Amino acid sequence: MRTALVIGTGLIGTSVALALVRRGVTVHLADHHPEHVRTAAALGAGTEEPPEGPVDLVVVAAPPAQVAAVLGDALRRGAGRGYLDVASVKGGPRRALEAQGLDLTAYIGTHPMSGRERSGPLAASADLFEGRPWVLTPTRDTDTEVLNLALELVSHCAAVPVVMDADAHDRAVALVSHMPHLVSSLVAARLEHAEETAVRLCGQGIRDVTRIAASDPAMWIDILSANPGPVADLLTDVSADLDETVRALRALQSADEAKRQGGADGVRDVLRRGNAGQVRVPGKHGSAPRAYEVVAVLIDDQPGQLARIFADAGLAGVNIEDVRIEHATGQQAGLVQLMVEPKAVGVLSGALRERGWAVRQ
Amino acid sequence: MRTALVIGTGLIGTSVALALVRRGVTVHLADHHPEHVRTAAALGAGTEEPPEGPVDLVVVAAPPAQVAAVLGDALRRGAGRGYLDVASVKGGPRRALEAQGLDLTAYIGTHPMSGRERSGPLAASADLFEGRPWVLTPTRDTDTEVLNLALELVSHCAAVPVVMDADAHDRAVALVSHMPHLVSSLVAARLEHAEETAVRLCGQGIRDVTRIAASDPAMWIDILSANPGPVADLLTDVSADLDETVRALRALQSADEAKRQGGADGVRDVLRRGNAGQVRVPGKHGSAPRAYEVVAVLIDDQPGQLARIFADAGLAGVNIEDVRIEHATGQQAGLVQLMVEPKAVGVLSGALRERGWAVRQ
Predict the structure, then answer these.
(1) HSE of A270, CA atoms in CB hemisphere, 13 A
(2) Can you spell out the DSSP letters for A280-346?
(3) Which of A140, A174, B276, B334 is placed for a possible disulfide with A230 were both Cys, Cβ 3.0 to 4.6 Å?
(4) Do B172-278 and B3-164 have the same topology in CATH?
(5) Contact B203 A238 (CB under 8 A)
(6) How far does B214 lie from chain A, in Å, by closest CA?
(7) Is some CB atom of chain A closer than 8 A to the CB atom of B166?
(8) CB–CB of A306 and B310 under 8 A?
(9) Do A215 and B327 lie within an 8 Å CB cutoff?
């Protein structure tokens, strides 16, 4: 790949462009907001000049609802040898392109699974996709040359290619992203009018469950509008489980011992299925979560405390696999939970205690 | 308070005993598992010898279902001047005690909001409750002397006392803990039989939403069995919202523009209410979450990398407020997100870049 045209210079498009430029590809930038193109070009993501002829790869990084129109236009004017989009849903854009009666052998739908806490070209980075899955949805008709251009792009972005059917992709992201997002919002929504005394009792559990409910509604309306069917199907399944759970809890209130037992069995079933599903969530390095042990250390809130803990752990030769900081309610103090390999617990606890830390293991 | 009897020497009971011993209180330990008492005594949590007469405070740290029986027994034999329990629900035990026809002026129901990832006396620590809310549920009939004994205990444990009505407490923990726990299990349950390709696409969002679904079902059956009514009520509310959300998503699939608009409005409403609730979840130090900015740094997975980052941040005089580590799928690399005060972003990014870190801001 020697030349590319990136249409849409928001976070994703500009990040792709930066990664391509880093690998020596000549990148042309386009966006219907000229100031976005200028910003992206100023960041070194490519040139504002239009290409003189067809480029090797056209990358459409427009919002889901606009992808089919922008791609159709590029295809009709023969802007490139290959075409891909990076929208977070894949079935709808493909069907909309098919409805335009276009030859889609030079097109491949893709989706980089990167975090998107921020938006716009200023948040872009050539490293945005590093190590993340990047879904490719070729069909039997996709040109091998175009598939290879897409794989080259994914490689330049240091992402991990995953090949899927477009509709399977949409069901998958509904499962691992869109459905959990709405459920998180529904749990958080229960707090909107809750009494302050109750809200004070929130701990790390609800904090984690509701974290993603803080996201920008406008972006999520776009995403959900492009994938309503699979998300509605999954929420319907969740709703059926939820109603079953309510019935089990009501049975726990029964005066009848057998009914109470049935209720307990129902609740246990939900909890066990939750265990079985949770253990499948990939942890570190995409593998099943390893069983780390926690070494907890009390700190007060002065600059440098965490630095000293990590430095002391480093001196002890222990690798901290993960960190969680729990802050105390109403106090300038917190509990740092250091996740380490089980065999490192003794070494780390000993080393930290020796250096005067309040270790709670 | 000079003497106490702790009945039930699991994680909570032993931790309370350790905190009291540290403050010079003579603690007697009892448990229907003699080996637990021996372990707790060996840890320095008190003596296995029974008290010679009534103690100042009897602390019952038995599972919710057994609290009323154990407390009733202690009250009838006049084991102390004051009595409290630490079970995670408060309405049921009180009603069970009232049903025994006992004078409850010397009793106060309490609930320390500590994390309980582990159990048993070996996991106990005098610091377990430090900075955490500790709910007290006095009634109009509770002796002031007994309330003061409870407040003294909470102070010895370095916890933050919060006074609530027993039933309000049960509704509050249903809201901030029990309901979110079951919802997390229901989301995780959807992954149990999902295709491996879909599960590979999991990111930090679903990882956070399902984290608490990994908990021990046996302990949660106990907790939920003691509070089924308020939890069922809340899940019923969530279910109604969920069904409304499904209807909105289905409307988004409509051929009718007005219906689609109505669907988008419905989804936006859920997301906005989620925003409004999430912002109330207390962050650091129990206050509303402050707006931290993220400085992201790419690391590979060698011991000492985190230590060096924190040390470098410390040298730059920047306090890291929170940390999140995102690990890349299938790669021995990760992204460390350092949360800092907005004004510290420039200083930290500059300092880290200067020292050769791959900062992605």
Answers:
(1) 28
(2) TS--GGGSSPP--EEEEEEEES-TTHHHHHHHHHHHTTPPP-EEEEEEPTTSSEEEEEEEE-GGGHH
(3) A174
(4) no
(5) no
(6) 5
(7) no
(8) yes
(9) no
What CA–CA distance (Å, rounded) separates A289 from B198?
Answer: 17
Is B191 close to A280, i.e. CB distance below 8 A?
yes
Q: Which of A278, A322, A63, A239 is nearest to B306 (CA)?
A: A322
Please identify, in words, the CATH class of the domain defined by A172-278: mainly alpha
Q: B323 and A318: CB-CB below 8 Å?
A: no
| Nearest CA-CA partner of A278 in B25, B26, B189 | B189
Query: Please, are residues B357 and B312 in contact by the beta-carbon 8 Å criterion?
Result: yes
**Residue-wise pLDDT tens digits, B174-232:** 999 999 999 999 999 999 999 999 999 998 899 999 999 998 898 899 899 999 999 99
Residue listed under structure tokens 């009494």: A195
Tell me if chain B has a CB within 8 Å of the CB of A332: yes
Which stretches does DSSP call E strand in chain B? Answer: 3-7, 26-30, 55-60, 80-85, 107-112, 133-137, 160-163, 293-300, 322-327, 333-340, 358-360
For chain A, the straight-line distance linking the first and the last C-alpha, in angstroms and rounded, comes to 54
Cβ contact A191–B302 (<8 Å): no
> Which A positions 245-284 lie with beta carbon below 8 A of chain B?
245-246, 249-250, 252-253, 263-264, 267-268, 270-284
Which of B189, B277, B302 faces A189 most closely, judged by CB atoms? B277
CA–CA separation, A201 and B222 (whole Å): 20
Backbone angles phi, psi at A72, to 5 degrees: -55, -45
**Whole-number Å distance between alpha carbons of B281 and B61:** 29
**Rounded distance between C-alpha atoms, residue B131 and residue A38, angstroms:** 51
Pick the CATH number of B293-360 from 3.30.1490.20, 1.10.472.80, 3.30.70.260, 3.90.1010.10: 3.30.70.260
Flag if B252 and A328 touch (Cβ within 8 Å). Answer: no
Backbone angles phi, psi at B80, to 5 degrees: -155, 175
CA dist., res. A342 & res. A347, Å (int): 10
Residue spans per domain, chain A? 3-164, 172-278, 293-360
CB contact under 8 A, B252 and A224: yes
Q: Is B132 strand, coil or helix?
A: coil
- Overall pTM surpassing 0.80 (yes/no): no
Q: Pairing state of beta strands B55-60 and B80-85?
A: parallel
Residue pairs between chains A and B whose CB atoms are closer than 8 Å: 466
Determine contact: A299 vs chain B, CB below 8 A: no
Q: Which residues contact A37 (CB under 8 A, 6 or more apart)?
A: A9, A29, A30, A31, A48
Per-residue pLDDT of chain A (361 residues; tens, 9 = 90+): 999 999 999 999 999 999 999 999 999 999 998 988 999 999 999 999 999 999 999 999 998 889 999 999 999 999 999 999 999 999 999 999 999 999 999 999 999 998 655 667 888 889 999 888 999 999 999 999 999 999 999 999 999 999 999 999 999 999 999 999 999 999 999 999 999 999 999 988 999 999 999 988 988 998 999 999 999 999 999 999 999 999 999 999 999 999 999 999 999 999 999 999 999 998 744 444 456 778 888 877 666 777 778 778 877 878 777 777 665 444 445 678 788 887 888 888 888 988 888 887 5
Distance from CA of B311 to the nearest CA of A (A): 5
Put simply, whether B219 touches A (Cβ < 8 Å) is no
